[in-house]
């Protein structure tokens, strides 16, 4: 996880580290620490993004884009309380975290566009064909840096065989990069080629050099800043999916409630069975629409009610 920094750990005493680990594991109710936290995780002063492990203030701490201390409360014990409580009910904190990340990335994208404009002012504008060839070199740079960083990580974990396989892939990528760079170099005058030195990373907005060596690329793509942005962008995409599906399932619930009420009214007034059959069909269609989502367990009660109403309708039709 990117939510803990080496600096924080190194400045904590052994007892403080142990206390932090206990907070993360057991929450605010752990033995010997009762009453320390009077603030529940549901308090609006608690950072909801932190509870979901995606507060940029924490993920990007001690990087070039360190945002300082978050204005809301961060406490490992409160996060443990939330993780335990959220197994029984949905607090919909995904919406708050998504809003936080949307505002964060909106600012990041503005800075990225500004960086691109500044870069364009200092570098010669390329034709579409040359730009495409240059981007090919940059794509290989990114693949080399990402793969090399992953290989080093596997090596540190003792997974030597997997690490060596990735290093073989790095060698192949180096050859492809050299070929792409030769094509790019031969397509333009030497003076223009030398000007094309930098580009802006589309993930973290840092400047990257087209002529960067493998060590520099690995340090960037495997570094805390870039990996932190990768983590946040993946979390942002996941939250978008969750919020959209949550909205869909809420609509399904509303439709089910309305149809069930109509069905109950039809049964009580003993109206036309054909009308009831249509309503049952609509109910089953709505339930079928919701199948396949991970929210389907929330519809179990509705399934039971629909089946009971359907059975009642069938019995009345027979009678």
Automatic annotation (TrEMBL):
Pfam families: LUC7 (PF03194)
Entry keyword Lyase: no
TM region positions: 236-263
Single biological process term from Gene Ontology: mRNA splice site recognition
InterPro entries (alphabetical): Luc7-rel (IPR004882)
Entry coiled-coil feature ranges: 105-179
One Gene Ontology molecular-function label: mRNA binding
GO CC term, one of those recorded: U1 snRNP
Source superkingdom: Eukaryota
This protein's UniProt keywords: Coiled coil, Membrane, Transmembrane, Transmembrane helix
Family from the record: Belongs to the Luc7 family.
PANTHER family attached to this UniProt entry: RNA-BINDING PROTEIN LUC7-RELATED
Identification of the protein by name: Putative RNA-binding protein Luc7-like 2
Organism of origin: Trichinella pseudospiralis
Species classification: Eukaryota, Metazoa, Ecdysozoa, Nematoda, Enoplea
């Amino acid at each position: 996880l990117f939510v803990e920094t080496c600096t924080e750990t190194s400045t904590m005493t052994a007892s403080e580290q142990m206390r932090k680990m206990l907070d993360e594991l057991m929450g605010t109710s752990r033995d010997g620490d009762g009453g320390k936290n009077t603030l529940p995780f549901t308090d609006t002063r608690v950072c909801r993004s932190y509870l979901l492990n995606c507060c940029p203030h924490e993920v990007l701490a001690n990087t070039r884009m360190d945002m300082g201390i978050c204005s809301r409360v961060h406490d490992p014990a409160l996060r443990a309380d939330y993780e335990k409580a959220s197994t029984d009910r949905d607090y919909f904190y995904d919406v708050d975290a998504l809003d936080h990340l949307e505002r964060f990335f909106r600012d990041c994208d503005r800075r990225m566009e500004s960086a691109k404009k500044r870069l364009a002012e200092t570098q010669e504008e390329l034709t579409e064909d040359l730009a495409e060839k240059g981007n090919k070199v940059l794509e290989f740079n990114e693949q080399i840096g990402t793969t090399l960083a992953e290989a080093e990580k596997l090596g540190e974990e003792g997974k030597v065989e997997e690490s060596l396989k990735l290093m073989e892939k790095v060698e192949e990528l180096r050859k492809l990069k050299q070929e792409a760079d030769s094509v790019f170099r031969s397509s333009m005058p030497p003076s223009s080629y030398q000007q094309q030195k930098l580009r802006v990373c589309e993930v973290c907005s840092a400047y990257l050099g087209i002529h960067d060596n493998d060590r520099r690329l690995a340090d960037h793509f495997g570094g805390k800043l870039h990996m932190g942005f990768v983590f946040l962008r993946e979390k942002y995409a996941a939250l978008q999916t969750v919020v959209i599906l949550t909205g869909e399932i809420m609509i399904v619930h509303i439709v089910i409630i309305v149809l069930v009420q109509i069905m109950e009214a039809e049964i009580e007034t003993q109206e036309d069975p054909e009308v009831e059959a249509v309503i049952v069909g609509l109910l089953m269609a709505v339930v079928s629409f919701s199948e396949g989502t991970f929210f389907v367990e929330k519809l179990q009660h509705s399934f039971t009610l629909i089946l009971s109403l359907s059975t009642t309708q069938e019995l009345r039709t027979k009678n």
